[in-house]
């Protein structure tokens, strides 16, 4: 039986106000009973509870915001794995019930358990894997108790560092007690606890770089070990990125997302060789890298060959984002060494030319593509027909299509519509920022109702809803702002679209002109 441990250091309030629960939870008798149990702290019946009740108690404690109960549950967790998403349920439940204190309580409980195990030289902790992957971001200000992905990474890193320091202190005390023995004999005599692997998505910038680097390097062989699934970094030096990539466990990484401006071909040539150590890397996002190869030079030709070769060293790669790089006429050369077809390709604002789209149409990528983002290209001119041919080739697989800010008018959409209607599996269509009329949008809605998997359309403000005033240009800026919106016309157009949706009976279909008010489909959820 474990000795009692002090709870005063956690400084966690006993309860957070109850939240509205989704259907399926509140009407479950088992869940209602679990809520009654976790309403009391400490749990008087915890030692007597059978193991199969722990998951439902965890759900109730998390969704009701009871961090002290969560800490007690984790301390006595009877299973080797604790997976947040599997326990709480759907990802949207995690998103709609953000609780910084609840997540911190789970981390603190694991730290406390490991400290206790180290202190008594025993393996009383059954937990071997804590999986906090997929916990959605809660940007600062959205909810007072929400945890951002950045603060979550810092909390995990600090926990790993703390447990490693405690292990070193315990080993030093142990060596003093065995002063007469040799160092090797002492090390051999001291049993090492198996520890806990923490599977997490890590987000790092200049502020959190130091603590994460320490956690990855000093904690790799410690009792609490970070295993990164998705790695996102921004505002770091090249040396800093390389140092972190070299410190990650290569067996777990499935996505690397580098959000740096102006890396260019030179910067990518430094970073990409370090990605080949990740055999399971499926997603690589390099948006804003500012690769510009519109004007070919001997140096850019060498850089493109180097980039292609390094991408070819990633055998599991299925998603690639090169957004905001100017790649005119070079897409074939960049993708030529890939070992398998891509399933997600994001090329927004990449200055593509007809030859690039023609290559994609004829490549082995086209029939495999599930997600395609070609936003920011001018389809009012020579790119429209190559786009139509590309969509023909992707129609059997395509789930997500982004064509935002592509200068499309009614006539261009009309030319694409027959091909769009053949994309039978399409779930998302993004058309925001195009010059489409209310009539064209209503026609699009009616003709795509047959796409039974289509659930979200982001449409532009109709051009006939703008006031007849000239566009405004901000002094000193190259950006032209759209003319003022006529609120009454927009309300009328929105009402017409809403009425068409209501008449169709498609209650699962959402049409919105807000490009930010929804979660984009992630490649790993396609």
UniProtKB/TrEMBL annotation:
Residues 167-193 are annotated as: Disordered. Keywords: Cytoplasm, Leucine-rich repeat, Repeat. It is found in: Cytoplasm. GO terms for cellular component: cytoplasm. Gene3D superfamilies: Ribonuclease Inhibitor. PANTHER family: LEUCINE-RICH REPEAT-CONTAINING PROTEIN 14, SIMILAR TO PREFERENTIALLY EXPRESSED ANTIGEN IN MELANOMA-LIKE 3. This is Leucine-rich repeat-containing protein 14. The lineage of its organism: Eukaryota, Metazoa, Chordata, Craniata, Vertebrata. The gene is LOC117003857.
């Amino acid at each position: 039986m474990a000795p009692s441990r002090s709870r005063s250091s956690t400084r966690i309030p006993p309860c957070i106000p109850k939240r509205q629960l989704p259907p399926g939870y509140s009407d479950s008798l088992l869940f209602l009973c679990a809520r009654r149990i976790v309403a009391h702290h400490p749990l008087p019946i915890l030692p007597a509870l059978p193991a199969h009740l722990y998951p439902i108690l965890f759900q109730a404690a998390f969704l009701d915001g009871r961090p002290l109960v969560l800490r007690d549950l984790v301390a006595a967790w009877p299973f080797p794995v604790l997976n947040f998403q599997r326990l709480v349920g759907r990802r949207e439940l995690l998103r709609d019930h953000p609780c910084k204190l609840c997540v911190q309580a789970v981390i603190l409980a694991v730290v406390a358990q490991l400290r206790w195990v180290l202190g008594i030289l025993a393996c009383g902790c059954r937990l071997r894997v804590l999986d906090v992957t997929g916990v959605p971001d809660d940007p600062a200000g959205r909810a007072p108790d929400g945890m951002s992905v950045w603060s979550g990474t810092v909390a995990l890193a600090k926990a790993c560092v703390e447990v490693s320091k405690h292990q070193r202190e315990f080993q030093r005390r142990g060596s003093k007690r065995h002063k007469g023995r040799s160092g090797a004999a002492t090390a051999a005599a001291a049993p090492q606890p198996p520890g806990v692997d923490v599977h997490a998505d890590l987000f790092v910038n200049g502020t959190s770089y130091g603590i994460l680097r320490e956690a990855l390097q000093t904690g790799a062989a410690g009792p609490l070990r970070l295993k990164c699934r998705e790695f996102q970094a921004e505002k770091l030096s090249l040396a800093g990125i390389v140092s972190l990539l070299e410190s990650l466990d290569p067996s777990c990484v499935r996505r690397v997302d580098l959000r740096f401006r102006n890396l260019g071909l030179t910067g990518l040539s430094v970073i990409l060789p370090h990605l080949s150590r990740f055999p399971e890397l499926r997603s690589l996002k390099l948006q804003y890298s500012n690769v510009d190869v519109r004007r070919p030079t001997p140096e850019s030709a060498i850089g493109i060959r180097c980039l292609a070769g390094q991408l070819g060293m990633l055998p599991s790669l299925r998603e690639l984002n090169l957004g905001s790089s100017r790649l005119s006429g070079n897409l074939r050369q960049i993708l030529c060494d890939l070992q398998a077809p891509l399933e997600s390709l994001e090329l927004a604002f990449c200055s593509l030319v007809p030859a690039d789209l023609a290559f994609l149409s004829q490549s082995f990528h086209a029939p495999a593509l599930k997600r395609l983002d070609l936003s920011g290209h001018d389809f009012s001119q020579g790119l429209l027909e190559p786009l139509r041919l590309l969509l023909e080739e992707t129609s059997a697989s395509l789930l997500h299509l982004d064509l935002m800010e592509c200068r499309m008018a009614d006539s261009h959409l009309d030319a694409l519509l027959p091909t769009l209607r053949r994309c039978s599996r399409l779930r998302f269509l993004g058309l925001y920022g195009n010059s489409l009329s209310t009539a064209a949008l209503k026609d699009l809605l009616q003709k795509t109702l047959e796409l039974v998997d289509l659930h979200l359309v982001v449409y532009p403000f109709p051009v006939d809803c703008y006031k007849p005033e000239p566009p405004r240009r901000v002094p000193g800026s190259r950006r032209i702002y759209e003319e003022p919106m006529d609120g009454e016309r927009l309300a009328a157009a929105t009402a017409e679209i809403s009425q068409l949706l209501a008449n169709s009976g498609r209650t699962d279909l959402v049409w919105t002109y807000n490009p930010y008010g929804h979660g984009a489909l992630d490649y790993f959820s396609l």
